[in-house]
Prior knowledge:
- Helices cover about 60% and strands about 15% of the residues.
- It has 9 helices and 5 strands.
- The radius of gyration is 17 Å and the shape is elongated.
- About 30% of the residues are buried.
Amino acid sequence: MTDKRNHILEIIEKSPGIRFREIMRISGLKNGVLSHHLRHMEDRGRIRVSRGPGKVHYSSLNITEEQFKVARALQRSTTRAILLALTADDNLRFTEIVERCKKSPSTISTYLTDMIKEGVVKVKIVDAKKVYYTNYRSEVNFLVDIQKPSHIDRPVSGFEDIINSL
């Protein structure tokens, strides 16, 4: 692999589930150049790619599909906060998640719905109340150690949450 591709792979390995724009920002590569290298790496089976509506996430082949699913959720500040709350305490009610994440109920509802669809978060009834939990505690803990976002990354993720909630 070329030096540029090795550098891109290092970025992806340090932050599984990373999105295209973030790779572009960290690597300093232009859009077309980065697209070319990522497409080449994907075609050769060197990276894993997940495409969704308006979202493309990348990871190395060093993590499992389950870890990749969790890694995608950990890339956004709100879903990260939700997962960290659910990892710290099982069976949280909706209002408890809102309090811990310090986000509006509508924002938490939107992201929880997406995470339930992805299978990262589950819902059950306990004592006639709906509670949320995750079966991916070990994956969250493992990936949080890998993905420590810098202070520069947090405002970008916060801005993304505002735009996505519109």
